[in-house]
Amino acid sequence: MNNGAAALLLAVTALAGTGEVVLSRGEMIEIGAGFRLPDLITSTGARLREVGTTNRTHLADYTGAIGPGTGCVLRIHTSNYRVIGFTSEVALRELAGPCREAGIPLIADLGSGLLAPEPQLPDEPDAATALRDGADLVIASGDKLLGGPQAGILLGDAEVIARLARHPLARAVRADKLTLAALEATLTGPLPRCSRRCARTRSRCVSAPRASPDRSAGA
User: Fold this and answer.
1) Which residue of 62, 116, 187, 191 sits 20 to 30 Å from the alpha carbon of 25, by its own alpha carbon?
2) In this structure, is residue 212 part of a structural domain?
3) pLDDT tens across 30-54, in order?
4) What are phi and psi of 208, to 5 degrees?
């Protein structure tokens, strides 16, 4: 898609329709230029079902909200801010079971675009782990951590992706050929110089022998 917001717009439109989108109050994010994701979600005709509080959301909040009117359950990574202290959130792997039992798609909007685990970013969620933990659809950006062109990347279950591709809105928000070419070059080309340097630094840190404490020095 042409950006991450467009990918989310298509996902909600195609999967939720006029149903409810279950979303934690702690993930109701404002992105660049003052655009707010809750406004984007409701602009599709879907209804927003807020659960939990700003700082704490529990599994029971989600399961209590899931019902006949639920279109999808949405998790949004708060990549541009962080709430710390007395907090609680529900892991994707915990949500996957109840969503699967109810036949409701689970969407993970990661935003930042990390495709696989990165040791230097241990707290940053990645697409591979989200899919392994049970997300039916993962949304990522091409122009942030991935370092490519502005794009919205959709990854997930083949049937879900096919459903999105068939929706009329997909034509309006699809990426152009230059964007696709730039994205392919990013994914298949050589590592950027900074990434190679980080890899070498990490390798040296791992292989360097640990210095023994000098016990000969006086107090």
Assistant:
1) 116
2) no
3) 988 889 999 999 999 999 999 999 9
4) -70, 135
